[in-house]
């Protein structure tokens, strides 16, 4: 008998919805149907739907009655309400990064995230995270945390090497940086929940948490979780002496555009993470692992799978080369299949398999919860100019 397709509805029709939709088209072995999309702006969601031959729903409630899975591609501030509504309706949820966070007190009271007390933010972000996780557990549906780096082939290969060689990560260093998000919601704390810390450092951070989970499961039969963070944040494009030459996005209101985070783990080992909005030349996604038995460099972007010299910009006007490249003239490293290098289709494949097989996805609620705790503890540390702060882990996720 033919298996019934998993029916998916997407919430949000921005950049993330575009690569999620494309990834659903690449799922193999499991029938999947993207039924439709909902978003705040009628004209935008209808354009998205018509282009893909799917339905545009006027509300989340209308979409919920037609699907098995809600793919939450809304900005961070909507992750909790959209996810909880979906769980309460008995749907599985895929939720983009950041899992959830703190978006200011109710009402429009001149909230500025960069000046708001960070201990309150941490407590509120943890409560939000626990509410979503509790809703998932109560509904007995899957919470799939869309941290695509976990599924990047380079990261999966390192996970395999780590597990099969029984390695121990002593130190890791990595980062994500580029010249600024295209999302209009990014840059306003109320909508995004923060800047480089929650928007960018989350990728290498979750990936390290994942690798330490694997290392712990292999060596000790339980994950090695994060212990403390020491962090600094800066607002470089708003510094009085900063001079804009027009190449970097600079219209942030109350978020940081640079961060560094030093992390210690339960086993005493360490990691350093950098993230920023001030880097040209394409998105820079990288992770270096220093283990007791190997070294690995995961170059998600740029990768040197291809090198191109293009003497005249307009020759490749309609050829996509790589995310946020800036200029197509001269030497570049085009990404031949960027979605795959970043792990987007593999992530959606794992989520569909997890739902079908009733198992946990590789990137699930523990990773989501631990990431929120570490990111907002980093803000507390940054407020104290880098003082070490404990990561308040949820023991029920252990
Ligand atoms: N993993 C990655 O590489 C990656 C890349 C880009 C974005 N993201 C994440 O994906 C999410 C969306 O980012 P984006 O760049 O697509 O944002 P965007 O601002 O371009 O689009 C957001 C969409 O959500 C809709 N929306 C907002 N509130 C809603 C609500 N309550 N109900 C339904 N729809 C609502 C908006 O109308 C819009 O269509 C963010 O959390 C972002 O961090 C992840």
Task: Describe it.
The protein folds into two domains: 6-146, 3-Layer(aba) Sandwich (Rossmann fold), CATH 3.40.50.720; 152-338 and 365-397, Dihydrodipicolinate Reductase, domain 2. The two termini are 40 Å apart. It has 398 residues and is of the alpha/beta class. The chain is built from eleven helices and 15 strands. Helix 6 runs parallel beside helix 8. The model has no long low-confidence stretch (mean pLDDT 96). It has helices at 15-24, 42-52, 60-64, 79-88, 118-139, 153-165, 189-192, 196-220, 338-342, 344-357, 365-383, and strands spanning 6-11, 32-38, 55-57, 69-72, 92-96, 143-146, 169-177, 226-234, 258-265, 270-276, 284-291, 295-301, 308-310, 330-332, 389-390. Strands 12-11-7-10-9-8-15 form a seven-stranded mixed β-sheet. The protein has a six-stranded parallel β-sheet with strand order 3-2-1-4-5-6, with helices on both faces. It has a two-stranded antiparallel ribbon with strand order 13-14.
């Amino acid at each position: 008998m033919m298996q019934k397709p998993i029916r998916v509805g997407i919430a949000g029709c921005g950049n993330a919805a575009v690569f999620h939709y494309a990834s659903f088209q690449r799922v193999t072995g499991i029938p999947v149907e993207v039924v439709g999309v909902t978003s705040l702006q009628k004209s935008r969601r209808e354009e998205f739907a018509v282009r893909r031959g799917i339905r545009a729903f006027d509300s989340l409630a209308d979409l919920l009655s037609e699907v098995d899975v809600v793919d939450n591609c809304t900005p961070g501030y909507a992750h909790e309400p959209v996810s909880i509504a979906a769980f309460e309706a008995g749907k599985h949820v895929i939720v983009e990064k950041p899992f959830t966070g703190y978006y200011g007190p109710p009402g429009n009271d001149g909230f500025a995230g960069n000046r708001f007390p960070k201990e309150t933010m941490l407590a509120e972000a943890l409560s939000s995270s626990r509410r979503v996780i509790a809703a998932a557990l109560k509904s007995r549906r899957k919470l799939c945390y869309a941290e695509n780096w976990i599924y990047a082939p380079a990261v999966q290969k390192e996970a395999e090497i780590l597990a099969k060689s029984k390695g121990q990560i002593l130190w890791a260093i990595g980062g994500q940086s580029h010249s600024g998000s295209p999302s209009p919601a990014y840059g306003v704390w109320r909508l995004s929940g923060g800047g480089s810390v929650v928007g960018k450092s989350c990728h290498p951070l979750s990936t390290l948490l994942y690798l330490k989970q694997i290392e712990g499961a292999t060596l000790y039969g339980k994950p090695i979780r994060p212990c403390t963070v020491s962090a600094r944040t800066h607002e470089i494009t708003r510094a009085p002496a900063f001079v804009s030459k027009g190449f970097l996005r600079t219209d942030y209101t109350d978020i940081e555009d640079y961060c560094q985070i030093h992390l210690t783990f339960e086993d005493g080992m360490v990691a350093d993470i950098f993230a920023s909005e001030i880097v040209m030349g394409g998105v820079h996604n990288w992770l270096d692992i220093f283990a007791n038995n190997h070294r690995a460099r995961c170059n998600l972007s740029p990768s040197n799978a291809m090198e191109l010299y293009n003497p005249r910009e307009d020759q490749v006007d309609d050829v996509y080369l790589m995310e946020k490249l800036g200029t197509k003239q001269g030497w570049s490293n085009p990404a031949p299949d960027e979605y795959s290098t970043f792990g987007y289709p593999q992530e959606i494949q794992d989520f569909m398999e997890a739902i079908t097989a009733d198992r946990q996805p590789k990137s699930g609620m523990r990773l989501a919860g631990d990431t929120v705790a570490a990111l907002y503890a980093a803000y507390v540390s940054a407020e104290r100019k880098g003082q070490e702060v404990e990561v308040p882990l949820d023991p029920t996720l252990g």
